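Dear colleagues,

For the upcoming journal club I promised to circulate an example of a predicted protein-ligand complex. I picked one with 6-O-phosphono-beta-D-glucopyranose because it came up in last month's discussion. The inputs are reproduced below in full, followed by the predicted structure.
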Amino acid sequence: MSLDLVLFGGTGDLAWRKLMPALFQAFRHGTLPQGCRIIGVARDDLSDTAYRELIASRFEGVELAKRPSAEEFARFAALLHFLRMDLSRPEDYARLAARLAERHAGTVVMYVATAPALFTTVCEQLAAAGLNAPHVRVVLEKPLGHDLASNRAINETVRMAFQEKQVFRIDHYLGKPSVQNLFALRFGNALFEPLWRRENIANIQITIAEDLGVEKRGAFYDQTGALRDMVQNHALQLLCAIGMEPPINSHADAIRDEKLKVLRSLKAWTPETLTQHVVRGQYAAGGSNGHAVPAYRDEPGVDPASRTETFVALRTEIANWRWAGVPFYLRTGKRLASRDARIVVNFRPAPHAIFRTPAGAANQLVINLQPKDGLELHLLAQGQDNRRSNAQTLSPVHLDLDFDRRFGAERVGAYERLLLDVIDGRLNLFVRSDEQEEAWRWVEPIQEHWANDTQGPRPYTAGSWGPSAASAMIARDNYCWHEEC
Ligand code: BG6
């Protein structure tokens, strides 16, 4: 099968940071089809050779294991081409069509890694140039819009140009090996599913903590904030993966139908819950990995009076028979104490105590997403220190499964995995338009509430776990975040 991968935004940040390294790894692993062409598209005036040199410089200084040798890069570089385009000019799409027509049509992937404002233009122009035939797939990066209306407008245009099965909306969290393992854990093992319900589970916590600040993306981030950047997509996709019903099979729509049902079941916001169950924060100056770091408002590109949130914690419920009344706590933020993404499933305590147990002890399943990738099952066991005691005291112990160690050599990164899925036409790990719209519909009342709220985000010290109001929120239910308990 011949493959042409057209990379709109071919000199941009995403191509630079994520896509080229992922494509190179796929090349190294032998999973790119023979004779494939990667055509970088941008406004820059570059020859193929200059583009190859630019991409070569990307690999200088990367860790040894991921750096190509000169000979290896020369073979990879032979796949790289460049096309200068002004994305608003129809004649430039005609040139692209001519370039693609140079050889027999196989699969064509249009990867739109541009500023989101260009998504609709690119899709419209591709259709106008006849570049939307069934062998063409289009990949759209997040954020797709900044609210429900803008998301719908983009989806509307995309729908006019492409059929849904041609559209690959990326949420790179779904490509992470740990997230695929979450599906495997739930739907490939009989052990947990019977326990996976309100009768046994007290609460579920999803944390996506980053120690980084906004880096060089201050201007973009200041218009976006943590709710749009992380909650509307990554955190809600994790919530779906943990809360969904078992799909009838592993086909894309079977999985996406179940995720959609979770999003539709999320408890509607009320004025009370918006005030009590959502906390927003913004980092103040502090420390990160032993270095002093500036406040968010002092980051380049950020408005010095910005009210943009860099932290969100919220409590929600999935209103259905399986989950009614079980709190789901979601939390994400920049410049937190460490890079740590995990899902903690807190089971209810044993119904009747015949042993002495430490206060509050109960079983816990911890799904570590990153940087560690694995599972911990926390249990209570008979220790060795009380053999002579009549009243037996149990101690916490845990089983620890490290997926990196177990599967290390076979694992592929999120972008590599997702790119290969696009090439193979597998939609399982991509988000359908109705899921995306439902997620926007659910976050929109929070956006509106904040727009009318004079208080603004609560400051937290960079390097901490966020504002104390996030701890107060969960403490009202008599629970605590995993690192506090
Ligand atoms: C992106 C966000 O989608 O995800 C970034 O735009 C964030 O702000 C990133 O840093 C986190 O991804 P990861 O894979 O590093 O956890």
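Two points we might discuss: The mean pLDDT is 94. DSSP finds 15 helices and 17 strands in the chain.

See you all on Thursday,
B. R.
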